[in-house]
Amino acid sequence: MSHAFIIDRTGSTSLTYEDLLSRLSVGEYAPVFRPASTAEALVAVLTALVRGVPLRLVDSDFSNSEIHALGLQGGQLDEKSPISGKAPASLEEAQALGRVSSGFSLELYTSGSTGLPKLVRHRLDSLTRTLRVSERHVEDVWALAFNPTHIAGIQVLLQAFFNGNTLVDIFGLSRAEIHARLHSLGVTHLSATPTFYRLLLPVEAPFPKLRSLTLGGERSDAALLAQLRTAFPLARLHNLYASTEAGTLLVADGDLFGIHASVEGKILILDGQLWIARELLAEFQSRDDAPWYATGDRVEVISDAPLRFRIVGRENDFINVGGSKVDPAEVESALRAFPGVAEARVYGRPSSVVGTLLCAEYTSLLPLAEPDLRSHLALCLQAHKVPRIMKRVESLAKTRTGKLSRNV
């Protein structure tokens, strides 16, 4: 039980499972908590889970104006309350208590990329829908590449905790630091956004210890999957469809999804958009209580029997350029296909003359000739999809969850 629970970003052991058990036995906690570190966030979640109490996690980087707008002032934030649920005497008992935690709920905020963050309340079932617990997972070592106060990070935490695995915190580290952690700390499982994986590429040498790679949170493409298969030759690739409002709903081995029998009849494709039954959702404020919820995700149906479809992008990500809709992910994929381009971000900028200008930022190790880049795009995109303004930058703007930011 003395093996590491979490290894912090410096690469030294931050907490062992013995330390964790001690933390789970406290007599008080903060129901509305803004953690100062990854370890604090994870311990808070497990304390609430094992002791059967509600918890709201608040992002550490919320601005004062966001804190005020969310009504988190006036002593509510980080205020301590007594906790009386049973304290576990062993890791096995902690795991058993966590599986039947009836009083537990977890409130998380969405990334707030399109406005004020929205509060979503999860129960145990929506957080553990795709949990895999068995003897064959006890030796897994998970890299934590997500913000620990968002649902993707919580799901990695629960997968590791219920199997007694070690977590290696790599969220926010540089490419070189992440490579070093993956090689030296024996990481076997990694779950991250496509944006994160593109940060890792290219690699100087393959990672033979990685056995499982999971992608989620954004659209991935065949080119990225091919690069990952080369960099992680022994890893099985899993593509997830998940959201803060619903947790994980769909899993695929490539970029084509089907609907699993467990959620059949509860997920629909209507007018090219994904809809899910409200019973699959966590609790959050919405405009109505209609039985179906529009996710805002556009899909492309590849076959009807069996149903296979590809996630195209977010409806509100599409950019209206001269009356035609442009999918920024399509343009970004074309930019990344040009030799030397590492990452790309496409967005719309308001213009008093033409309405919306299509703009692009990209990263590359060396300066590129813009005329050559434009010629490349003209060969693979319609004219209105070629950005009017392109700029080489050192890094691209990301959301709190590590995805590409579409905001100007």
Task: Give short descriptive properties of this protein.
29% strand, 24 strands, alpha/beta, eight-stranded mixed sheet, 11 helices, Rossmann fold, GMP Synthetase, Chain A, domain 3, 408 residues
Short recap of the structure:
By secondary structure, the chain is α/β, with parallel strands linked by helices.
Task: Tell the overall outline.
Answer: globular
Write down the CATH class of the domain at 4-192.
Alpha Beta
Percent of sequence in beta strands: 25-35%
Per DSSP E runs of 2 or more residues, the count of β-strands stands at 24
Average of per-residue pLDDT values: 88
Please list the strands of the largest sheet in the order they lie side by side: 2-1-10-9-11-12-13-14
Largest sheet: 8 strands, mixed
Question: How would you describe this protein?
Answer:
There is one protein chain. With 408 residues, the protein is an alpha/beta fold. Among the domains are: 4-192, 3-Layer(aba) Sandwich (Rossmann fold), CATH 3.40.50; 318-392, 2-Layer Sandwich (GMP Synthetase, Chain A, domain 3). Helices cover 25% and strands 29% of the residues. The protein has helices at 17-23, 38-51, 64-69, 91-99, 124-127, 151-163, 175-184, 194-200, 222-231, 328-336, 370-380, and strands spanning 4-7, 13-16, 28-29, 32-33, 54-57, 81-82, 105-109, 119-122, 141-144, 166-169, 189-192, 212-215, 236-243, 247-252, 267-270, 273-277, 283-284, 292-304, 307-314, 319-321, 324-326, 341-351, 355-364, 389-392. Strands 2-1-10-9-11-12-13-14 form an 8-stranded mixed sheet, with helices on both faces. A 5-stranded mixed sheet has the order 4-5-7-8-17. A 4-stranded antiparallel sheet has the order 15-16-18-19, with no helix packed on it. Strand 18 (292-304) and strand 19 (307-314) form a beta hairpin. Helix 2 crosses helix 4 (91-99). The longest helix has 14 residues, at 38-51. The radius of gyration is 22 Å and the shape is globular. The model has no long low-confidence stretch (mean pLDDT 88).
